[in-house]
Amino acid sequence: MAKLIITEGDTADWVYQLVDPETGEPLNLTGATVKLYMWSLPEQSIVIDGGSCTHDDTGGTITYSPALADVDDPGEYQIQYKVTLQDGSTKRYPHLNVDSRFTLVIEHAVEGQDTQG
Predict the structure, then answer these.
(1) What is the SS3 string spanning the chain?
(2) Is the residue at 59 inside a domain?
(3) What tens digit of pLDDT does each residue of 91-102 get?
(4) What range does the domain containing 78 cover?
């Protein structure tokens, strides 16, 4: 399970590399669109519903630039990326099983701490 821990209000980009689960090679994203979904745990309330990501076509690297509203509520969240490939097929990363969950933890900011990316 991957876990990213950030501070409340931190709007720095989230960068993630997608790899082919069968080969371990970076996923070819040429012509693809990538969307991010995030929901709170354990409530399952949707926080980000299809946020647009930028990506590197051949390196499998995707980037999401969170808005302040995405990161202003401390807690634990689940993240998943939906990739629509050039041929129209879709894949979700990571797959939502216990071993591959991607969790985001937003911690309370310390007074006076700079959190703006």
Answers:
(1) CEEEEEECCCCCCEEEECECCCCCCECCCCCCEEEEEEEEECCCCEEEEEEECEECCCCCEEEECCCHHHCCCCEEEEEEEEEECCCCCEEEECCCCHHHCEEEEEECCCCCCCCCC
(2) yes
(3) 888 765 545 567
(4) 2-107
- Which CATH number is 14's domain given? 2.60.40.3350
Query: In the numeric block, which tokens belong to residue 56?
Result: 């590197």
Task: Write the pLDDT tens digit of every residue in 22-49.
Answer: 888 998 999 999 999 999 988 889 999 9
**Dist CA 14 CA 12 (whole Å):** 7
- Give the pLDDT band of residue 88 (cuts 50, 70, 90): very high
> Does any domain span residue 113?
no
Domains of the chain: total: 1
Whole-prediction pTM: 0.83
